[in-house]
Amino acid sequence: MSTSGDRRPARPQSVEEVSARLGEQAYLADRGLGTAIFLSLSLGQPLLLEGEAGVGKTEVAKALAPALGAELVRLQCYEGIDAHQALYEWDYTRQLLYVRLLQEGGELREDAADEIFGPRFLVERPLLQAVRAGDRAVLLIDEIDRADDEFEAFLLEMLSDFQVTVPELGTIRAERPPAVVLTSNRTRELHDALKRRCLYHWIDYPSPEREVEIIAARAPAVPADLARRVAGAVDRIRTLDLVKRPGVAETIEWAKALAFLGAERLERDSVEVTLGTVVKDHDDLVRIRDELGGILTDG
Amino acid sequence: MAEGAAAGGVDRVVPALAGFGRELRAAGLPVGTGQVLSFCRGLARLDPTDLRDVYWSGRTCLVSRHDDLAAYDDAFARYFLGAPAHRLVVTAGGTPAIDERRPALHAPAPAAGTERETSPRDVGHAASDVEVLRGKDFADCDPDELAAIGRLLAGLVIATPWRKSRRTQRARKGTRPDLRRALREHVRDGAVRDIPRRRPRVRPRPLVLLLDVSGSMSAYSRALLQFAYAVTRGPGRVEVFCFGTRLTRVSGALARRDPDEALRQAADAVVDWEGGTRIGDSLREYLRSWAWRGGCRGAVVVICSDGLERGDPDVLAVAMARLARLAYRIVWVNPLKAGPAYEPATRGMRAALPHIDLLVSGHNLASLAELATVIEAFD
């Protein structure tokens, strides 16, 4: 599956190296996150990331894959996802057509079943892909809290031995397991067994200073001074009693929008028209318009 | 990396690390042996003499819930620094500690009814008494009658309406062809006679109960809590909250098997029995802290309150509008509605009314039973 072959760089040997490599991918990890990732890689245990929406949980895996020279395999969870959608499935339509074809050509022999249930007709889903790729992949299991208990139990089994048995093909096993990152928005409590299996890290909103660095890394076109003002304003917005507090992605979007409009500082006019990039709930918009004076102080 | 040397360093501190695991357990964190092992192995790859490494590897390996982070910081400060928690300053994304422990008060009024010893009167409740009880306003019941009502309520099951899941199941008249099965039959029999089908599976919608336990509702609070306990036994996910001036989640307490114990725990958890009512603020609190975790989206939400709002009715109106956008249906249970001349004229009720799908009285057993039927029939 992977094209990176064996030229991938070795696994990082220290927390600093983890942070440095993520930094090359324009992801700034603090010491806590760096340690968590380093331990996850060293101990071979999955890393469970939680935090408010928009703090960059998914981004961790997206940056980690290129940082490790690995391919990102993403399994997006949703309500009702089951093993087939996560693991593998047979391409039934093509199988049926093929059987038809064989019948009509009078070629339906004894061993046809082997062919029909062969690699040709197997549709690989993310988990099987990850097992095949082994440590050439970073497996991202996104929003695990959206899946149900049964799927969680299945996943637990999967994460403990990294092997997949396809009855018709045999057992496929990852000789070296992939790095695994799980994210959860805490819409429900995950099962203890799964949590115990994982290392855990809570990602917080970054400090304003850190957020300035993030803007600089993600949107280099934004002037440093504007970035500092935007980060300060977002920090104040987050202290308000809002339905949905802005995430890091919103901060970056806002800074970009303001820079695009040629703003150099935060002025009421430019802020009013760009506010929709940071705050995406009507009640919150009203709230923030009321408090705009306080938010823009020293901006 | 010189893992051997570092590991040697760790060997010497392993007893101390294991001791920290015990410290955390004593502080109420569910720390497993496997996690302590990960902690030791992890620290072997780091620098066990650097307190920051100890802090972060411990936090990564030994904690698995956000709610436990504050307790972890406390225990870490105690164990490694011998200091009270607020001395510990962890830079780089230190998490604000949220203290959710609030002073617990006891529910004062209906305490007599919580005793479960069967009094002679209980035994005598015959079928006709049950009929009388069904129609009797909770406000007119004595503790014994309330206890009897509690037992009758235990038999009540609320089945919420169904919603489609993305999982499917076999069904003769399903809407989607089951190609996997078709192929199997085809290979086995050489032909497919009827195309096997599947249809989406259905699951019950979540149910959220918000109970007003303020002073004006005190005659009904206990019965409604018993109602909540009964409902918790039903299928599907149920979340229960009590509110007066503040909001308390009691789902956890009600999950206990023994009903008296469950009710006692729930009553202990509520901080403001018989205080005033701030419905709008309580709903807002619910929406902010629980709505997206407490299973509100697509849920049937039942609010039990007399609507005597002391707070700002505008806050209530905004909160109700938001709730209505999230929830599948909103039912308002108002015991005052039982009165013949009732008009939802209070400021609170007027603010809430446009967003309510159904207004029922729920002042006695019969009407609660009726409520169960009505909820089931939503669709």
Structural class of chain B: alpha/beta
CATH class wording of the largest domain in chain B: Alpha Beta
Tell me, briefly, the overall form of chain A: elongated
Which structural class do the helices and strands of chain A define? alpha/beta
State the helicity of chain B in percent bands.
Answer: 40-55%
As a percent range, the share of strand residues of chain B is: 5-15%
Give the mean pLDDT of chain A: 88
Work out the number of β strands of chain A: 9
Helix proportion range of chain A: 40-55%
What is the element string of chain A, with H for helices and E for strands?
HHEHEHEHHEHEHEEEHEHHHHHH
Largest pleated sheet of chain B: 6 strands, mixed
Computed Rg of chain B: 27 Å
What does this structure look like?
By secondary structure, chain A is α/β, with parallel strands linked by helices. In chain A, 48% of the residues lie in helices and 14% in strands. Chain A contains 15 helices and 9 strands. In chain A, a hairpin with a 3-residue loop joins strand 6 and strand 7. The termini of chain A are far apart. Chain B has 379 residues and is α/β, with parallel strands linked by helices. Chain B has 3 domains: 3-87; 111-158 and 205-377, Rossmann fold, CATH 3.40.50; 166-202, no CATH class. Chain B is built from 16 helices and 9 strands. Chain B has helices at 3-26, 33-44, 51-62, 69-81, 111-114, 120-123, 127-135, 143-153, 179-189, 218-232, 251-254, 259-269, 279-289, 313-326, 347-352, 365-377, and strands at residues 162-170, 176-177, 197-204, 207-212, 238-243, 247-249, 300-304, 329-333, 358-360. In chain B, the strands form 2 sheets. Chain B has a 6-stranded mixed sheet. In chain B, helix 1 (3-26) runs antiparallel to helix 2 (33-44), helix 8 (143-153) runs parallel beside helix 10 and helix 13 (279-289) packs parallel to helix 14. Chain B is globular. The termini of chain B are far apart. Residues 1-7 and 85-127 of chain B have low confidence and may be disordered. Chains A and B meet through helix 2, strand 1, helix 5, helix 6 and helix 9 of A and helix 2, helix 3, strand 1 and helix 9 of B.
